Amino acid sequence: MGHMSVTVSATSELFGAKNFDVNHNVLVSNIPVGSLCFGYFSAFLYQREAGARGAATCSGASCYQATFAIWGATCVVGTLLCVVLYVRSRSFAGRLPVRLQWLSRLANLVGAGRKA
C-alpha cells in the first residue's frame, strides 16, 4: 500500500490539474475493483477444477495452476505497462530524487526500439 501515498502527486504530474478528482478516483478505485474481480475469477477456476475431478473441494497444486498462470501473466503485462509509462513520462521521472540505473537503461532501450 506504499504506492497510495504517491498517487496524489503522480496523478497531478502525469495528467495535470484539470479533472484531477476524476483521474485520481480512477487510479485509486482500480485496487478494490481488481481485487473483487480477480477473487471471483479465482473462485470460478477453483470450482471448475474441483468439478472436473468430481468433488466439491480440490487439493493440490493443480487446483491453482490456472490461477497462478493468469496472475503471473497479469503481473508481466502490468510491469510492461509501467515501463511504457516511465518512457512516456521521462521528464517527470528525471526530477525524482532517486533514480534506478537499470530502469533508466531499460527505458532507454525501449525508447530506442520504439524510434527505429
Keywords:
116 residues; mainly alpha; 5 helices
Question: What secondary-structure arrangement, pairings included, does this model have?
Answer:
Blueprint (H helix, E strand, L loop, with lengths): L3 H12 L4 H33 L12 H24 L1 H4 L7 H15 L1
Helix pairs in contact: 1-2, 3-5
What is the overall pLDDT average?
Answer: 78
Rg estimate, integer Å: 19 Å
**How many DSSP E strands?**
0
The helix/strand order is HHHHH
User: How many helices?
Assistant: 5
Strand content: under 5%
List the domain count as a whole number: 2
Give the termini distance in whole angstroms.
38 Å
Q: Characterize the largest beta sheet: strand count, sense, and whether it forms a barrel.
A: none
Specify the oligomeric state. Answer: single chain
Residues in helices, as a percent range = over 70%
Shape: elongated
- Structural class from helices and strands? mainly alpha
| Poorly predicted spans | none
